[in-house]
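Supplementary Note 3. Input sequence used for the single-chain structure prediction.
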Amino acid sequence: MNAENKGKVVVVGAGLMGTGIAHAFASSGFETVLVDTNSDSLKRAYAGIEKILGDGVRLGKVEELVAQQSMARLSTNGDLRQAAAGAALLIETVSEQLAIKKAVVTEAAAMMPDDAIIASNTSALSVTEIAAVVPCPERFIGMHFFNPVHKMKLVELVRGLATSDETVARARDLCAAINKTAIVVNESPGLTTSRMSALLGNEAMYMLQEGTASAEDIDTALRMGFNHPMGPLELGDLTGWDTRLSVLRYLHSTLGEKFRPCPLIIKMVAAGRLGRKTGHGVYRYEDGKPVAGSGLKAGF
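The predicted structure, written as discrete structure tokens, is reproduced below.
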């Protein structure tokens, strides 16, 4: 499948990842439908995609006509079954909860052709287990994108037990069509990147909790010492500590003690300090930007 044959792409979940993935397909020539039951989330996502394209135009990276055409290819829908009807590709980006993902793909699969690809953007859950509820599970694959999608080039393609070679090849072609680089990962808890990132972020929180260094200094160490684009605590704020906690709990249950969630993460989630999306995580945010000196201090 490629942009030229105009196969419909459906993205389920209008959060940060769904917004980014929908932008990637719409701006690459695909008819794209973004689905969410929350109309406010859909409005924010639509505006977010418009802003990404608008910023591209202002910076001279995107032509005005291309931006307009991209938005013309994008639509939103609150009805999953209606949106999924006849789709060539569906990618779910809903909450990292197995039951919710299974419910979404079960409902969507009933409306899609047997040769359509169904994908999950899960960063840690079992692709094989999700695929088990789908007719023709050989067409199910993990497509793990990275945030922010419009800047990050990598996609992890995750083979479940039933995923066919044909599905992997078609998914590779899709990634190429939206200017992403794909790697293929045999299903394993946490894949490659989520497993390493979760461990790094968890250890950084343990260091903060134990008083090893301040949040700012821990993040600076990774940025300046290892050339990471952002520190692990900044990244946790961007990802959302509720999402990070869910991933850690899953990895802890499947891979053992080294992934036990730091108590400080549990405390922050209980307090509603989830990161950028709530305006307060390890750092405090105003207008989406971190406030200088607002990071948690060593020994919190």
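The first strand starts at residue 9 and ends at 12. Residues 9-186 form a domain with the Rossmann fold fold (CATH 3.40.50.720).
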